[in-house]
Request: fold
Amino acid sequence: MNFVQRNAVQGDKPDITRSETLWSLILLENDLVEALAMFRIFGPSVDNQSHALAPWWAGYRFTWQGLQADSDVSAACADVAVSVCRMAAEMDEKEWLTGVRQAEFELSLIQSDEPE
Reply:
């Protein structure tokens, strides 16, 4: 079973439960908190290349997993989603938007390949 089959798209987003959505948002927020702290302490540097990818990866995961749409189901999800968006944009808004666009593009390809 490949990645796409394990994360079968139903409608506009992968099928995940609300608690999984909250956990996904929390884990994403945790990654961004760490990356943002490193960025603020050490600034952008060659040594922190993995942290430089954090805004792109956050935008990609946020969109691929459909976390924005799922954040409407509870106040907790909505709060964490806003925090994720703010932190990623603070680090590098351009990279955040690039990650979002990449995930949107890949999702559109998957949806266009599905039989009707």
